[in-house]
Design brief:
Layout: H1 14-20, E1 35-40, E2 45-47, E3 60-66, E4 69-76, E5 82-86, H2 96-99, E6 104-106, E7 117-124, E8 130-140, E9 147-152, E10 158-168, E11 173-178, E12 189-195, E13 202-211, E14 218-224, E15 229-235, H3 242-292, H4 294-315
Parallel strand pairs: 1-8
Antiparallel strand pairs: 2-6, 3-4, 3-7, 4-5, 7-8, 9-10, 10-13, 11-14, 12-13, 14-15
The protein binds 2-acetamido-2-deoxy-beta-D-glucopyranose (NAG) (7 copies).
One 2-acetamido-2-deoxy-beta-D-glucopyranose (NAG) binds next to strand 13.
Length: about 325
């Protein structure tokens, strides 16, 4: 929808009104603000114009003009008869005379309507038409996110960067920055802006050709001030490209996992070592106690072994 810029409905031509005897309007004389309504391509437009007092005139007519060309005309009669003729789907609310809402509605904004003046003229009886509302239309469309490409030139260290964006209106301002702050040298930038023959939307291609170290970053800026829109695309130097970024991220994850695994292994090892130490300590203690009865025990083992062997032989 159109951004909110309100037509000053009180903007009147005092002398013309006095001539027309429309003293009623004197109550509303005020500053005459000719404002522009900013609309987005393809969206409907509403050009506001409010005059609640008009329905006090028995027979009257209004006319919306686009740059002095008739766009819509409507006539109201005392007997309630209404005649409306319009061009290009322009319309006003059905109850315009009752509510005094003569706002012009256009179904779709096209860039060719940019900077056009729209005005509403009123006439009653034999008096000449009086302009009541005047607005201008500003048309805008967003550009696509810029796409930045680079091409190494065959000879020397020169690199050409390409910045592509499209589908916007009006023609934007394209600029470049090197390493986030430096303006590129004069003559290194060439920008082509081409409006589509029908839609009038712009495709832009900007070239930046210069000797640049592979570590420098390059930024392309596409600006449309009335849309209050600034689009940028940045290509980082080789040491900071996306691939390296992803690779270092993978390395980082790998080393973290490795650290954790090694940490766990060390801890397990330490715990196991402590466990082993305890066992050996206990063994040593036991051994010392056992050594005294070792001989007897050894004999005992030999005896039992002999017994089992005997048993095996008998089994066979
Ligand atoms: C309004 O128009 C009709 C027919 O055109 C006419 O008969 C009538 O007198 C007009 N009224 C005024 C107030 O001019
Ligand atoms: C005037 O009419 C338009 C279209 O119908 C509507 O969007 C707008 O809100 C109306 N304005 C007022 C003040 O009623
Ligand atoms: C619209 O109006 C402004 C000032 O009112 C004028 O400077 C401009 O030329 C007009 N544009 C057209 C297309 O008539
Ligand atoms: C702009 O680019 C679009 C898509 O790439 C294409 O369809 C269109 O024809 C181009 N317009 C102009 C004026 O080159
Ligand atoms: C880039 O450097 C080459 C030599 O390496 C030189 O011939 C060329 O003129 C330079 N271009 C610019 C734009 O400075
Ligand atoms: C942005 O778009 C508006 C559309 O009305 C235009 O007036 C303005 O000049 C544009 N800004 C730039 C920087 O192109
Ligand atoms: C543009 O946007 C900035 C912040 O988003 C705001 O401060 C500024 O007033 C805007 N300018 C216009 C012309 O709308």
């Amino acid at each position: 929808m159109c951004l909110p810029v309100f037509c000053a409905p009180m903007c009147l031509h005092k002398r013309a009104l006095l001539r027309a005897g429309l003293l009623l309007f004197l109550l509303h004389l005020g500053a005459c603000l000719d404002d522009c309504v900013l609309c987005i391509v393809g969206q409907p437009v509403l050009l506001p114009c409010l005059y609640p007092e008009l329905n006090t005139f028995g027979n009257f007519s209004i006319e919306w003009r686009k740059n002095d060309q008739k766009l819509l005309r409507s006539e109201w009669r005392e007997d309630g008869n209404v005649e409306i003729c319009s061009l290009n789907y322009a319309r006003i609310p059905d109850d315009a005379a009752q509510n005094g809402n003569f706002s012009l509605e256009l179904p779709k904004v096209h860039p060719k309507q940019d900077k056009m003046n729209f005005s509403l003229f009123f006439s009653a009886g034999e008096n000449e038409a009086t302009q009541l509302c005047a607005l201008c239309l500003r048309v805008a469309a967003s550009f696509s996110a810029p796409e930045l490409q680079s091409e190494e030139e065959a000879d020397g260290d020169e690199t050409t960067f390409l910045c592509l964006s499209g589908g916007g209106y009006p023609e934007p301002v394209v600029s470049w920055l090197i390493s986030d702050s430096l303006q590129p040298p004069e003559g290194s930038v060439r920008t082509l802006a081409e409006p589509h023959p029908e839609s009038l939307l712009y495709n832009i291609t900007s070239y930046l050709t210069l000797n640049i170290s592979k570590d420098s970053s390059v930024t392309c800026i596409v600006e449309n001030l009335s849309m209050n829109e600034t689009l940028t695309a940045t290509r980082y130097g080789e040491s900071r490209t996306g691939v390296v970024g992803r690779a270092s991220e993978a390395m980082w994850i790998f080393s973290t996992v490795l650290c954790v695994v090694v940490g766990i292994m060390v801890m397990v090892g330490v715990v196991y070592q402590i466990h082993l130490d305890r066992i050996t300590k206990r063994r040593k203690k036991e051994n010392r106690e056992e050594q005294r009865g070792y001989k007897r025990k050894f004999q005992f083992i030999e005896e039992t072994e002999a017994m089992t062997e005997d048993k095996k032989e008998t089994d066979v």
